[in-house]
Design goal:
The structure holds 2 protein chains of 2 kinds. Chain A contains 11 helices and 9 strands. By secondary structure, chain A is of the alpha+beta class. Chain A has 3 domains: 113 residues, Butyryl-Coa Dehydrogenase, subunit A, domain 1, CATH 1.10.540.10; 108 residues, Butyryl-CoA Dehydrogenase, subunit A, domain 2 (Beta Barrel); 149 residues, Up-down Bundle (Butyryl-CoA Dehydrogenase, subunit A, domain 3), CATH 1.20.140. Chain A has a 4-stranded antiparallel β-sheet with strand order 2-3-7-6, with helices on one face. A 3-stranded mixed β-sheet of chain A has the order 1-4-5. In chain A, helix 9 runs antiparallel to helix 11. The longest helix of chain A has 37 residues. Chain A is globular. Chain B is an alpha+beta fold. In chain B, helix 1 packs parallel to helix 4, helix 5 runs antiparallel to helix 7 and helix 9 packs antiparallel against helix 10. The chains are: A alpha+beta, B alpha+beta. Chains A and B meet through strand 8, helix 9, helix 10 and helix 11 of A and strand 9, helix 9, helix 10 and helix 11 of B.
């Protein structure tokens, strides 16, 4: 870590210990998202880290963002994910938006006053994203959207939604990306999901019932939606990998701390080789994951983005988070299973990381595709 | 399993139907609300399984470990949490009284526990003594005409609902000097502490038993002072086999859910069943479940036939819950986003199963038991 990154981590560590951690058990139980926490992170400059300063961003790179998300995820995967997705939306606007669109939408997102949400999945199209059914029909001065979106992170609390909808033929070439804002006529929120983990971060269905959006809300041009979504998910793999590493680090820290304190059979349970081996494995897997995620971020920052490495990083880091958090619950034993200690929450939170932003099964498909290409 | 008796097959059928009609419909609700399905629990009395191992003289079914495992598996498929409460009642409380109490004590406590009028629990673990159970510090002191008990029992399944608790205490400084008492709700100095919120098994109440100069009649002592260690270990063997039955039920439920989902969910124009990655996951989880089932049932059968049980019970308890956590995690993965939501049962099954790697002796304690037995001679040198 360079000096700046060390400073950012320290600042975030203080913030999460003061402002997030003390209320998390309750907020997780009640599924409460606190806007003021997100706003404060925005004031500190963490809600638009990778955006240019011109639009209120911090002008930092993905390695910096990776470190910040990791640090926040040590306390709360939910807030880290909210930032990760909102930053993804900003990156889309910055890359594909017109000057006017950027001016209009970016400042309130980069400052953390508002939240951005990315809307691709539908009830019958998850992994097979290109088969999405939401339509956007051309009409005078704009488009009319009909359909619904599922599993939308920050659904209901976000103001700016990037919505993928079909403007043309079947398949990925017929998809376009639109900006839809909270309150638009014909746009409403459906069922809020009750989930195993990520309970602080609301996941909600979005419903479009003859929702009119003006031409100015189309991103770039018709037919580019799938490309836009996929390039966003490329970055998402780096940020989800980073969140996974933060989660693993916290789980490992909790396991080491508890095993040094807890005595059974008249000695600290850390002294048992069975537990030492578990923790040695956890630490090694975590270190390998961090290196992969870091490589993926470095490639992106250098302009040598490698999809295979990014997929490997996402898969490895999230599988590690699942394993390390499961083992941490095991090491804490009975108290690990209770909500009084954070490890059971980390374990519940970890599972989502293996599913979203492309399931780990899809990462394998991408890696295999790259292997074939390299061989040819 | 091919070696089940006709009676055991009937029991299996009976429990399957009961689980489907009475337990499954409310499983999700009790998990979400952290509530105990006491009505269904009491109905288990009418079904005749609350005293599965007890003598018919007290209302019991007069069956064995294999029968108990069958009930655990069938109930566990529908709701592991309610099944855990069933286990705490029928195996940890009722079976212990059946095996270790005096005739007079059995006459007094068993009929109501077996009919479902009373609910039972067992108190062993303490805040500072989980894996090291023999080290427990709750003290019982002979005060002439009664015993005085002080201490706290932790992670007690059914604590808040129990009318009768089977509680281990320390009666001497020598490590193995442990004695057992039957405690009734309302006895002077005995109370129930705060409920414990958990990751899973949320439909099974967990709490503390608190003893502050509790006054316990002498007639509530089980056996003699200081002789509890043997029957404590003995009952743990049965508990470990039985709790593995719950995990087996979870595995079966996961396999069923995945097969159903793979046939319904379409992506890229065909259902998930067509994808080799999904086929591999389902084939493997079904194979593992089949293997675990044969292993567990064989151990239960041999235990009923009188074979030594410490090591085999530890081996099933180590292997079954551990593999089922993996199976349940894969089941969520196959269900994708839906699997992570509470709409589908697999995430609850996974959360519930994790407890079985911890309760009734952690995986790590199972390894200690197995290794110490296998290496008994080598460890002397």
């Amino acid at each position: 870590m360079n000096e700046l990154q060390q400073e950012l981590s320290k600042q975030l560590e203080r913030f999460r210990n003061d402002k997030i951690e003390p209320f998390l058990e309750e907020d997780d139980r009640n599924e409460t998202f606190k806007f003021e926490i997100f706003n404060s992170l925005g004031e500190l400059g963490f809600c638009g880290m990778t955006l240019p300063e011109e639009f209120g961003g911090a002008g930092l790179n993905y390695q910096d963002l990776s470190i910040a998300l990791s640090e926040i995820a040590k306390s709360s995967v939910s807030y880290a994910a909210t930032i990760s997705v909102s930053t993804m939306v900003q990156a889309i606007l910055n890359e594909y938006g017109t000057k006017d669109q950027k001016k209009k939408y970016l400042p309130e997102l980069t400052s953390g006053k508002e939240i951005g949400a990315f809307c691709l999945s539908e009830s019958s199209s998850g992994t097979d994203a290109a088969s999405l059914k939401t339509t956007a029909k051309k009409t005078e001065g704009g488009y009319v959207l009909n359909g619904s979106k599922m599993w939308i992170t920050s659904g209901g609390i976000a103001k700016t939604y990037i919505v993928m909808a079909r403007t043309g033929e079947v398949g990925h070439k017929g998809i376009s990306a639109f900006i839809v804002t909270d309150g638009a006529k014909g746009f409403s929120y459906g069922k809020k999901e009750s989930k195993m983990g990520w309970r602080v971060s609301p996941t909600r269905e979005l419903v479009f019932d003859n929702c009119f959006v003006s031409e100015d809300n189309l991103l770039k041009e018709e037919g580019l939606g799938f490309k836009i979504a996929m390039s966003a998910l490329d970055k998402g793999r780096i940020t989800i990998g980073s969140i996974a590493c933060g989660l693993s680090q916290r789980a490992l820290d909790e396991a080491v701390k508890y095993s040094l304190e807890r005595k059974q059979f008249d000695q600290a349970i850390f002294e048992f080789q069975g537990l030492q081996f578990m923790m040695a494995d956890m630490a090694t897997e975590l270190e390998a994951s961090k290196l992969l995620v870091n490589q993926a971020a470095l490639n992106y920052d250098n302009g040598t983005f490698d999809q295979k490495i990014a997929s490997m990083a996402k898969m490895k880091a999230t599988d590690t988070a699942m394993r390390v958090s499961t083992d941490a619950v095991q090491i804490l034993g009975g108290v690990g299973f209770t909500t009084e200690y954070p490890v059971e929450r980390l374990m519940r939170d970890a599972k989502a990381l293996q599913i979203l932003e492309g399931t780990n099964q899809i990462q394998k498909v991408i890696i295999a595709r790259a292997l074939r290409k390299e061989f040819d | 399993m091919w070696f089940l008796s006709d009676e055991e097959r009937q029991l299996q059928e009976l429990c399957k139907n009961f689980a489907k009609n009475e337990i499954a419909p409310d499983a999700e609700k009790h998990d979400t609300d952290e509530t105990f399905n006491i009505n269904t629990f009491r109905k288990m009395g009418e079904l005749g399984v609350l005293g599965i191992t007890s003598d018919p003289e007290y209302g019991g079914a007069g069956m064995g470990t294999l029968a108990a495992t069958i009930v655990m598996e069938e109930f566990g498929r529908a709701c592991p949490a309610l099944t855990l409460s069933y286990l705490a009642h029928s195996i940890l409380c009722v079976n212990n009284i059946e095996n270790n109490a005096s005739e007079k004590q059995k006459q007094k406590y068993l009929p109501k526990l077996i009919s479902g009028e009373h609910i039972g629990c067992m108190g062993m673990s303490e805040p500072g003594y989980g894996s090291d159970a023999v080290g427990i510090q709750t003290q019982a002191v002979d005060k002439g005409n009664h015993f005085q008990i002080n201490g706290t029992k932790m992670w007690i399944t059914n604590a808040q609902y129990a009318d009768v608790a089977y509680v281990y205490t320390r009666t001497g400084s020598e490590r193995k000097n442990l004695s057992t008492f039957i405690i009734e709700k309302g006895m002077e100095g005995f109370s129930v502490g705060k409920p414990i919120h958990k990751m899973g098994m949320r439909g099974s109440p967990t709490g503390e038993l608190v003893f502050e100069n509790a006054k316990i009649p002498k007639e509530n002592l089980i056996g003699n002072v200081g002789d509890s260690i043997y029957h404590m270990m003995k009952n743990l063997e049965l508990e470990r086999i039985a709790i593995s039955g719950i995990s087996l039920g979870i595995a079966q439920a996961c396999v069923d859910a995945c097969i159903k989902y793979a046939g319904e969910r379409k992506q890229f124009g065909k259902n998930l069943a067509h994808y080799q990655m999904i086929q591999k996951m389902i084939a493997e989880m079904a194979t593992e479940t089949e293997m675990l089932k044969r292993f567990l049932y064989t151990v239960a059968k041999e235990y009923d036939d009188g074979k030594e049980g410490a090591v085999p019970a530890a081996m099933v308890k180590l292997q079954v819950p551990k593999m089922v956590t993996k199976i349940a995690l894969d089941a969520i993965q196959i269900h994708g986003g839906y699997g992570y939501s509470r709409e589908f049962p697999v995430e609850r099954l996974m959360r519930d199963n994790k407890l079985n790697e911890i309760g009734a002796g952690t995986n790590e304690v199972m390894i200690m038991i197995i290794a110490k037995n296998l290496l008994n001679e080598a460890l002397k040198n």
